[in-house]
């Protein structure tokens, strides 16, 4: 089984996306052998009121809940976020969060962010953090949103040992405390692979060696990204099929609180 | 730990399940190119049009170069069109001369795998022209690599273009278009500049480098629409969909060249994603590059 922890639906403000409806995304997934995907609203990245994006997502994927796993985009710097979180969790059945501190104008060290992380952790929701939405070289003339530096995550993660973070669209972990067990950070973060090199510098292989297979999760960034590079990275990884299966699906299932059917 | 399962070029580069088994069956663009460049068994070639080998002042350059070849082997890439760039730019005469000499040595280390781009700084016109002629005529380099020392429509670049036309070789030009200034690259060219250069020199064959590493790819592709003699290289770390479909739809498949620029799984992954006919896929993977290489052998 393959589960994509890094997928999106809807429109993005700065360019047209293809395969961005549930039916189209599912067709793409079928053609690539991806069984399920954690999806969030692409529009919510730039909506002031992100809850509108969550509502759109909830309505769109209702017939496809077996394969599309909704993630809520919550902005803790915006009025009513606790109500939004409650609705997303209890009424919409959303299974985790995506947060965009740089796009939504708050810092990971702000009190509001800490409050959201605590609230999500109480609800046992994993919190995914995209380090970027687009490559910085192609950003619009209207906005100048930087990537989240790995150093800011290094500061955040140990403050919330009970939280579970999924780091999306990132690279450059090797050489940072996130890339080694020697730094003794809590094992409460998972690294998604879509931007990791898998040959030559081979950050994928390095992280596998340093952190073990339980800390890497498969993700593509589709439909912003082609899913094929991430699939290829797993394919060329020097690892057993069991390790690859753990990365492709078992770690994601554990984050969702589900058991793999064939798990020993 | 078990090694990764054996990977064939066919499995890596197939565009879709329907295309499996047929994707690498293509037609060579010309007999001359086929004879000069075909792999053993007349198998169509996969050519990475944009790669780099390492400066030999680095203590581990051989290991780094070997890792590139190992990656190419793993990913089903037959040949890599490489340059070696100076560590900092603008390149001095001594700097680009040293890089090109290193590349000759590297080509000997990896026989039949490396094709050489001659890197020069066009500001040093006399030495740049001598360097290009020497490395194309005596060492079989396939063309010219220009970086960001001057915008390509700066007249100082024109003698290089005219010599490339005379020698019948293409120019691979570093490029990018951002809506905010590129740090440290005030003279970077973009797809619009290369299209304008191509308009001034219709006999030239220009390659706009790394659409996946050159900023706003939609802008670049649209800017190149009418530049019939300007090709686009697919390399770079950006794997945005539908970058390649837009390129094929806007420019036509004959103007697209497969490349990685060292982002190897991104480069090959994008090719797997591109859902076009097997014959068109083979043009992108190697056929179009063979057309460019064949220019040199034409009389």
Class computed from helices, strands and strand pairing of chain A: alpha/beta
Q: What is the CATH architecture assignment of chain A?
A: Alpha-Beta Barrel
User: Looking at this structure, what is the CATH superfamily of chain A?
Assistant: Metal-dependent hydrolases
Rg calc of chain B: 18 Å
Which two chains share the most extensive interface? A-B, 40 and 43 residues
Strand content of chain B: 5-15%
Radius of gyration of chain A in whole Å, from Cα?
17 Å
How many strands of chain A? Answer: 9
CATH architecture of chain B: Alpha-Beta Barrel
The CATH class designation of chain B is: Alpha Beta
Overall mean pLDDT of chain A:
96
CATH fold name of chain A, please? Answer: TIM Barrel
Counting helices, strands and paired strands, the structural category of chain B is alpha/beta
The overall number of domains of chain B is 1
The total beta strand count of chain B reads 8
Supply the number of helical segments of chain B: 11
CATH superfamily of chain B: Metal-dependent hydrolases
Verbal overview:
With 264 residues, chain A is an alpha/beta fold. Chain A has helices at 22-32, 50-61, 81-91, 111-122, 150-156, 203-211, 228-236, 241-255; strands at residues 3-9, 36-41, 68-70, 72-73, 97-98, 127-130, 165-168, 189-192, 216-217. Chain A has a 6-stranded parallel beta sheet with strand order 4-5-6-7-8-9. Chain A has a 3-stranded parallel beta sheet with strand order 1-2-3. Chain A is globular and about 45 Å long. Chain B is of the alpha/beta class and 299 residues long. Helix content of chain B is 41%, strand content 11%. In chain B, helix 2 crosses helix 11, helix 5 (125-137) runs parallel beside helix 6 and helix 8 (217-223) runs parallel beside helix 9. Chain B is globular and about 45 Å long. In chain B, 55% of the residues are buried. At the A-B interface, helix 7 of A face helix 3 and helix 10 of B.
């Amino acid at each position: 089984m393959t589960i994509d922890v890094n997928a999106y639906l809807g429109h993005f403000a700065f360019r047209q996306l293809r395969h961005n409806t549930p039916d189209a995304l599912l067709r793409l997934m079928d053609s690539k052998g991806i069984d399920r995907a954690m999806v969030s609203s692409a529009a919510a990245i730039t909506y002031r009121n992100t809850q509108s994006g969550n509502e759109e997502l909830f309505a769109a994927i209702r017939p496809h809940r077996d394969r599309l796993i909704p993630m809520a985009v919550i902005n803790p710097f915006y009025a009513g976020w606790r109500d939004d979180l409650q609705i997303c969790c209890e009424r919409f059945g959303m299974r985790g969060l995506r947060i965009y501190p740089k796009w939504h104008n708050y810092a990971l060290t702000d009190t509001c962010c800490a409050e959201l992380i605590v609230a999500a952790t109480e609800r046992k929701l994993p919190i995914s953090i995209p380090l970027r939405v687009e490559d910085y070289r192609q950003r619009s003339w209207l906005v100048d949103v930087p990537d989240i530096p790995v150093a800011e995550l290094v500061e955040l993660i140990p403050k919330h040992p009970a939280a579970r973070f999924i780091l999306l669209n990132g690279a450059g972990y090797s050489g940072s405390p996130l890339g080694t067990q020697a730094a003794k950070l809590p094992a409460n973060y998972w690294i998604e692979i879509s931007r990791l090199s898998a040959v030559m510098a081979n950050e994928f292989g390095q992280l596998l060696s340093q952190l073990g297979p339980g800390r890497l999760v498969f993700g593509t960034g589709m439909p912003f990204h082609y899913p094929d590079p991430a699939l290829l990275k797993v394919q060329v990884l020097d690892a057993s099929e069991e390790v690859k299966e753990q990365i492709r699906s078992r770690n994601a299932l554990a984050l969702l609180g589900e058991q793999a059917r064939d798990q020993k | 730990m078990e090694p990764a399962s054996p990977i064939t070029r066919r499995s890596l580069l197939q565009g879709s399940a329907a295309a499996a088994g047929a994707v690498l069956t293509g037609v060579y663009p010309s007999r001359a190119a086929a004879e000069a460049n075909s792999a053993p068994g007349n198998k169509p070639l996969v050519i990475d049009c944009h790669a780099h080998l390492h400066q030999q002042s680095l203590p581990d350059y051989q290991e780094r170069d070997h890792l590139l070849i190992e990656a190419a082997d793993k990913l089903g890439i037959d040949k890599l069109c490489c340059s070696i760039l100076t560590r900092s730019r603008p390149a001095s005469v001594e700097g680009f001369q040293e890089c090109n000499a290193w590349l000759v040595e590297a080509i000997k280390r990896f026989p039949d795998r490396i094709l050489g781009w001659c890197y020069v700084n066009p500001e040093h016109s006399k030495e740049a022209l001598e360097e290009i002629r020497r490395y194309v005529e005596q060492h079989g380099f396939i063309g010219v690599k220009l970086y960001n020392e001057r915008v390509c429509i700066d007249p100082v670049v024109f003698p290089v273009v005219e010599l490339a036309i005379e020698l019948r070789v293409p120019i691979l030009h570093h490029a990018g278009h951002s809506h905010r200034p590129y740090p440290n690259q005030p003279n970077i060219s973009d797809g619009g500049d290369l299209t304008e250069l191509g308009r001034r020199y219709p006999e030239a064959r220009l390659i706009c480098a790394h659409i996946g590493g050159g900023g706003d790819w939609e802008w670049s592709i649209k800017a190149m629409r009418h530049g019939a003699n300007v090709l686009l290289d697919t390399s770079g770390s950006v794997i945005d969909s539908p970058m390649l479909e837009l390129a094929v739809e806007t420019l036509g498949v004959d103007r697209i060249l497969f490349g990685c620029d060292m982002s190897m799984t991104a480069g090959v992954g994008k090719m797997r994603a591109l859902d076009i006919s097997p014959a068109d896929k083979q043009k992108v993977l190697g056929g179009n590059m063979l057309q460019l290489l064949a220019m040199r052998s034409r009389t």
